[in-house]
Amino acid sequence: MGGLQDRVVLVTGGGSGVGRAIVERFLDEGARLVVLERDPDKAASLAAIGSGELVTVTGDVTTYADNEKAVAAAVEAFGRLDVFIGNVGLWDFNRTLVDLSPTELQAGFHDLFTVNVLGYLLGARAAAAALRESRGAIVLTLSNASFYPQGGGVLYTATKHAGLGVVRQLAYELAPEIRVNGVAPGGMSTNLSGPRSLGLSERQISDIPIQEYLEKYSALERAIEPSDYVGAYALLASGGDALTVTGTVFDISSVGTPHRPPQ
């Protein structure tokens, strides 16, 4: 797109999945990256691909101090921050309301909302001053579950609907200096996991036949890779191609027959 050259971008959860695909694409297009990543091994794997244009910060998106540290790293390394991309999330593996015990419901609510909603708010708050100065942008990873059922269970779907509200409210609150938008991918095979409180921290979405499901039921009848979703992020993060876009979520999922995904 040509709009990412020299853009300074902070990505949370950039060590794998869509986050890693964003990092690789943005580096290819000339951006300079800071990645906030909790997993030290994933952070180390990123260090080899940046050639001085990538800084990794090990930390947790649910801790405000770690978000501040990542913003400070961008300003220290590159002089400013142009874009904050919130990308860390947990999935609930389609756990329905009646599948959850009352104890699990409360604990799962806390964990999913803390990561999927509060994590974005903390990151946006930490980045706000720097983004106002650069007249920059915020891009949040949402989901087709922000619009439709069956993208997850009740807790995940609730967090992604909340994320839609976050985009719309922050676009209002942070205008005119900061544009705020979201990208809503559909399913893909990644290491997206669930909360420990539901016994799902060791499971990954790639453990289920998600690619087979997509090929069978999605409108395009093809498996989707994380890199297939990155174009929307590049557009929204660009320095010129999306200057009129704010308060919008791009639904880029391949919507198909609403069958229940495999458990």
From TrEMBL:
Report the family membership.
Belongs to the short-chain dehydrogenases/reductases (SDR) family.
- UniProt KW keywords: Oxidoreductase
Signal peptide extent: none
PROSITE patterns with a match to the protein in the record:
ADH_SHORT
Q: What is the scientific name of the source organism?
A: Pseudonocardia ailaonensis
* Keyword Protein biosynthesis attached: no
Provide the taxonomic classification: Bacteria, Bacillati, Actinomycetota, Actinomycetes, Pseudonocardiales
**The protein's name in its UniProt record:** 3-phenylpropionate-dihydrodiol/cinnamic acid-dihydrodiol dehydrogenase
SUPFAM superfamilies, per database record: NAD(P)-binding Rossmann-fold domains
> Does the record carry Oxidoreductase as a key word?
yes
Q: Which Gene3D superfamilies did the record assign? A: NAD(P)-binding Rossmann-like Domain
**Per UniProt, what is the name of the gene that codes for the protein in this document?**
hcaB
Pfam families membership: adh_short
What InterPro entries does the entry give?
NAD(P)-bd_dom_sf, Sc_DH/Rdtase_CS, SDR_fam
